[in-house]
Amino acid sequence: MSALSTHAPWATPLPLILTSVKRTDMIDTTFNGWANWETWNVSLWIQNDEGLYNEARRLARFGRTYQDLVMMLRDCGSKETPDGCRWDDPAIDGMEINEMMAEL
């Protein structure tokens, strides 16, 4: 019997089976689903502080944006969240915050 005998189980060609594999080793580049910590932080404060929530909701109903909320907060003397993230931090994803405000 030769090494390539058709009777050897390892010599029998197997059908190719394609499967979908979900990679779980990919690095998550978001912060709790948000673009970054700054975006997550201001979103967290807006959604969990009743006054900020109501104001953001009111602004969004009139087609206003996060930038309008930032200007209103600045006029009221607030420059940052209680844990130190500036409302106007350039790292904040304004589009993402606008989408969140539209859903309030």
Quick recap of the structure?
The chain has a domain at 42-79 and 91-104. The protein is built from four helices and no strands. It has helices at residues 37-48, 50-61, 66-75, 94-102.
Description:
With 104 residues, this protein is mainly α. It has a domain at 42-79 and 91-104. It is built from four helices and no strands. 14% of the residues are buried.
Could you estimate the helical fraction of the residues in percent? 40-55%
The radius of gyration is: 26 Å
| Shape summary | elongated
Q: How many strand elements?
A: 0
Unreliable stretches covering 5 or more consecutive residues? none
What string, H for helix and E for strand, traces the elements in order?
Answer: HHHH
Number of helices: 4
Structural class, from helix and strand content? mainly alpha
The mean pLDDT is 86
Distance between the termini: 75 Å
List keywords for this structure.
single chain, about 100 residues, mainly alpha, 4 helices, about 0% strand, elongated
SSE blueprint:
Blueprint: H1 37-48, H2 50-61, H3 66-75, H4 94-102
Helix pairs in contact: 1-2
